[in-house]
Amino acid sequence: MPATALKNEYWPNNSFTDNNLKCSSSAVANFFTSWQQSYKRSQTVQTLASLAIGTLGGAIASYFNLPLAWLLGAMISTLLVSFSGGTLFVPIWLRSTMIAVLGVLIGAAFTPEIFADLSVWWLSVVVILLFVALVSTFTFIYLRYVAGFDVPTAFFSSPPGGMIEMAIIGQTFGGDVRLISLVHAIRVALVVGVVPFLVANMDGVDQVQAGFIGMVGPEPLLPLDGFILIFCGAIGWWLATYLRFPAPFLVGPILLSVIAHFAGLSRAAPPQEIVAAAQVIIGVSIGSRFSGLTMAGFGKVAVIAIGSAILMVAAAVFTGWSLAAAMGLNDVELILALAPGGVAEMSLVALSIGIGTAFISAMHIIRIAAIIAVMPFIFRFMDGSNSNQGDDP
Q1: Which residue in 9, 30, 163, 168 has a CA-CA distance of 20 to 30 Å to 212?
Q2: How far apart are alpha carbons 238 and 203 in whole angstroms?
Q3: What is the pLDDT of residues 128-187, one digit of tens each?
Q4: Helix (H/G/I), strand (E/B), else coil: 246
C-alpha cells in the first residue's frame, strides 16, 4: 500500500485509492469506533455480571456467618463460575481504587500507641526478611526439581508475594509468564481461603467479623472528613506512583492517611459499606483471574501451586508459633505478618479480627518491597554464575 494511502487512512475527510480498492477514512473510523464501543460494552456487561455474582456470594457467606464473608463469598462464587467456563472481568482501575480505600482505612489504624512499639518492629523486619529468603529458596527447589519448572519460571514463582511484579520481571528473564501468574494467583486464593478460618480458631481471637469490617470513628463522617479521606486516597496514590513505590495504590493512601490522622485533620474512617464493597471487588478480582480455565486445563499446575502454598503457610504458622512470644508479639500477629497472601487481603484479615492491623500491613509492605527490589539482582547473579561455570573447560 502506498505511503499516501496509509497517511490518508488516519486523516478524516480524506480518501485513498489503491488500484481498484477505494475506501474512505470516515468508514474506517466508524468501523473502529463501533468495534471499540462494542468491546467496551462487553467489558461493562462482564464487570457488572462479575460484581453481581460476587455480591450474591458475599451475601450468602454473610448469611452463614463465615469469616471475612464478603471477601470469601465473592471469591468462591466467582471461582466456581470461572471453573465452569464463565468469562469474568474486573477492571484494574476498579480493584486499585478499592485497595486505595483500604489504604485509607489502614492508615487510620496507626495510633501514637503503635509507634511506641517501634522498638519491637526492627526485629520483626529481620525475621520477615529471613523468612522470605528461606521460604523462597525451598519453594524454588520444590518448583525446579520436583515440579520440573525451568529456572526463571521456578525462581520468579517462588517468592511469597509480588504476583504482578514477579510475572512482569520473570517474563523479561525468559520465564513463562502464564505459569508464574497462575502459581501466584493460586497461592493468594488458597491463603485468603484458608487463613481466616485458621486464625478464627486460635487463642486471642474473639471472632472474625463476618459482615461489615471497618472502624467507626469517635465522630460522625462529616463532609470535610469525606474530602480529607478522598484526598488521602487520590493524592497518596498519585504521589506513590510518581515516586515509584511498590503497590502505590495502597502504600500512598496509607501514608497520607497516617499523616492526616496524626495531625488531627480527621478522626474518621471510610464507611463500613464502602469497605464491604471493597471486599467484594477484591474477592471478585481474585476469582476472575481464573476466568476461562477449567480444572482439566490447569489441574497439574494447580496441584503444584497448592503444594508450594501449603509449604509457605506451614512455614508461616510454625515460625509464628515458635518466635512470637520471644519477640513480644501475639502469635496471630506474627503469623498474619508472615502469611504469603496479598497486602490488601491480609490487612483485611487483620481488620476483621482487630489485631495488629498497622503492624501486619507494614510488614507486608516491607516484604513486597524487598522481594521486588532484590529478586532481579539475585537472579542476575545466579544466571551469571551458571554462565561462568558453563564456560569453564
Answers
A1: 163
A2: 40
A3: 999 999 999 999 999 999 999 999 999 999 999 888 778 888 888 999 887 898 888 888
A4: coil
The full DSSP string for 60-120 is HHHHTT-TTHHHHHHHHHHHHHHHTT------HHHHHHHHHHHHHHHHTT--HHHHTTHHH
Q: What is the pLDDT of residues 189-222, one digit of tens each?
A: 888 888 888 877 776 565 555 444 444 444 567 7
**Distances 385 to 23, 172, 323, 371, 389 between C-alpha atoms, Å:** 58, 19, 35, 21, 6
Report which secondary-structure segment, H or E, holds 392: none
Cβ atoms 180, 203 nearer than 8 A: no
Q: Which residues of 243-255 are buried (b: 16+ CB within 10 A; e: fewer)?
A: eebbbbbbbbbbb
Whether pTM > 0.85 for this model: the answer is no
Gap between the Cα atoms of 128 and 141, Å rounded = 20
246: cell is 511498590
**Alpha-carbon distances of 314 from 76, 308, 335, 340, rounded to whole Å:** 22, 10, 10, 10
> CA 258 from chain center: how many Å?
21
> In whole angstroms, how far apart are CA 325 and each of 118, 212, 334?
17, 31, 10
